[in-house]
Structure formats: structure tokens, C-alpha cells
Batch of 3 targets.
Target 1
Amino acid sequence: MNARVVGMTRKSRTLESTKLMQLRKAIPEDCKAIFVWRNIPAIVALSRSGKTVTWEEHCRWFQSILSRDDSLLFIVSLKGTPIGQVRFDREDDRRFEVSIYLIPQYTGQGLGVLALKKACRQAFRRLNAFEIRATIRADNIHSISAFKRAGFVQSESSNANSEFQILSMKRKPKKT
């Protein structure tokens, strides 16, 4: 979808994107696509490790993620085309770490914000999470901005002088 469609407001583009974006749990057949995406130089540059992974390392990690019930890995699709992933890993009893990336041609259009919102709603429900945290490179201002637009706030444990910023979102209380 072209985010610059003439005659569409930002709100109408967002509503249209919301309808066209899907999340689904990753399956074994997604292994190769995620490996390719994970090693795209732009994605590697913004990752915590800053390093590529080998096929063998990736396969071990991928099998582990799919077999664990304390993690959740989603494939993000737009109009049926896979464009990225969102992953949740347990940190402790009710807190999970989130990681997301979209392939470069789909960034900068607000799609990451939509994917985060949808995925976090699923994580709160499926994993019984109380809090979701993101650890983001401090120089990754676009990601920090996207997380804040998705409803994340600066964590009290974030240090302004740190190489990373920690943002979090807590489960909203159920309405009575």
C-alpha cells in the first residue's frame, strides 16, 4: 500500500492499513524468511547485537522459539504479503520483552505502530502478560517514536546516558 495516496487523510490511511494488516503465529515454513530478514543490513544495524547470524544459529533459535510456550512469534502481513515479525519473550512471571522489525520498504508508514498495537493486545491476552517492555538502541529514534505512538512510555529503569532506552506498556485494567 502506498502511504501517500492522494485524497486520503492520515486517519483514513491508518484505518485502511488496519484492515489490510494481519498477524499470525509463525510456523516452521517461516524459518527462511525470518533468517533473510534478520540479516538485512538495515535490520542488523538497529539490532541489539549489531551482528548477523548464521543459518545454523538461526535454525536452533527458531526451533526453540516455536517450541516454547513462554514466547510468541508473529508474522506481520500486509495484503497477504509477509513484511516483518513481532516477538515476545518472557522476562519473568508476568513481564515480556517485545522485539519487532519490518523489512525496510515497509518502514516509515506507521505500519510498525499498527503491528505493535495488534501484537501487544494479543500478547496481553494469550500470555497473560501484565507488562511488555522494549529495549531499544538510544540512537534508534524512529523506533523509540513508533513505540511511544503505540502507547509505550519511558521506563523508570531507563538511564538517559545508556546505550539503550527501555519503554514499557502495562495491561489496562478490565472495565467493570
Note: The first strand starts at residue 21 and ends at 25.
Target 2
Amino acid sequence: MNGTILAITVFVVLLIAIVVLAVRWHQAERRVDEVRQESRDREGEIRADARNRSRIAHMAAISEQIAPMTPAFPYSHKDVQWVGGVIDAVVWDGLEADGEVNVVFLDVKTGPYARLTADQRRVRNAIEAKRVTFEVYPMPGVLDVTLAPELLAAEDPLAT
């Protein structure tokens, strides 16, 4: 009799354990399905946000390029040389008009929250601290050619 009660007890405990595991398994599967659906929904939002940010970045890049053509631009578009990168352009203000030249490092900002990047602030600080130089770098060996005598007699453009 004791053996039968023990066997029934073990059977009931195992049955309860199986039912509990089955319920937990089902709950876990439902949660996995929910998370997958949330991921799919979130992926759509993330992709839409990425498209929107990409559009904004493209519009900003276009705005930087057309800024010199706008009526409010304070410099002659002929004096602007686009650099890209940390600084958008260098303006040789007055160069086209054969006047005194003022060199301007220019970054075009668009949008109400546009701020200087850390690198742009470093460049601005270097300029404000007058850590700016002009250098000529003659490339050795690249254009070593024999010049005609009349060209050799001409004035050296780098001498002035």
C-alpha cells in the first residue's frame, strides 16, 4: 500500500511539474513573439528616423553649397573655396575685387540646433590664438622636367 501511495505521489508531482513547465514554456513563447513584434515595429520607426536624418543631412549639405548664392551671404561667391571636412570653406574676402584680402574660415550651419563640433571649436581657438601660418611645400621629384630656356628666364612666381 505504501508503495502505491508513493508511486501515485511521484506521478502527481511529475504531472504537476510537466504542467507547470508547459505553462511556463507557453508564456515564454508568447513573450518571444511579443518581443519579435515589438522589434519589427521598432525597426520601422528606426528606419523612418534614419531616412529622416539622412534627408536632413543631405539638405544641410546642399544648403552649404548654395549658401554663397543667396542674397544674404556676406561674401562674394567668387571668393569662396569649398574645403569640406571640419570647415566648409575658406573665403578669400577681397581677392576677386583685387583689394586687401581677409581670410575667413567659414562653416555654414543650418537648423535651429546647429552647433560647432569639438574639432571646429579647436580650429576656431587656433585661429583666435593666431596659430595660423602660410607655407609653401615644393613637391620633390614629382615635376622634375627640363624647362625651356625662356621659362627659366621668367620670374619665379614663388619668389614674391
Note: The first strand starts at residue 80 and ends at 82.
Target 3
Amino acid sequence: MPLDTLITILSVTAAVTAAFYGPLKDLLVHSTKKHKEEEIIRTRRDELTDRMHRDWFGEPGVEGVSPPRAGILFRMANIEAHLTTIDHEVNFNGGKSIKDAVHRTDQAVADVAGKLDTHLGRSREFQERVADKLGAGPTDAIRRPV
């Protein structure tokens, strides 16, 4: 190959390279930025997937660092058991719940209040009869609590 041909080929190659270098450089930079962004997204997605996996299945503890953590299915079963206990206590169920005990206490207090009213009425009647027999007026014989 003659030297003139080689110089021509090198000149053309240099001109083509110079013409395309800017766009190629921009394309490479854009491609690198896009690759970094995709890598960040992929890393974040992997972290979230790993966290979801640990939440779902639980994770063993690390001695001296963190206690073991149960998975979501075990925790949901635990919550359901607690809700069953709470439901048992706040609904009427034949006398064994807190609600049943409160109802019985309410009835007992109402019964005692009724008996007390009856007793106080009889006591006033008795005091009035005693006052009549002694000849004192009802206001003298009946002492009202202060």
C-alpha cells in the first residue's frame, strides 16, 4: 500500500472519528448514567424484596445483636388468638365474660338500691310513729343526715 493511500485512510478515519466523537461520547455518558440509575433502581428493588421476604418468613436472631423475628403468618395467627380472647371478654357468653360480670354487678347494685329505698321509707315511717307516740313533731324526731 502506498504511503499516500495510507495517509488518506488515516485522515479520513481521523475526520470520521472527530465528527462522531462528540455524539459517541454523549451516548456513552448517557448510557453510563442510565446504567447507574438502573443499578440504583435494581439495588433498591432487591432491598425491598429482601425486606418483604424477611417480613413474610421471619428471620433468625443474631446472638447478642438482635432477637429472632417471627414471620407474618405466625404473627397474624397470634393476633387472631388475641382477638378471639378479647371477643370472648366483651360479648355475652353465658356468664364468663367481663361484660356478663358488669351486667350482674349492675343488676345487684339496682337490687341493693331498691332495698335501701324500701328500708329508708320504712325507717321514716317508724320515726314518724315514734314521734307521734312521744308527742314530738315530725321535724324534731326525724334527724336527717348532714
Note: The mean pLDDT is 82.
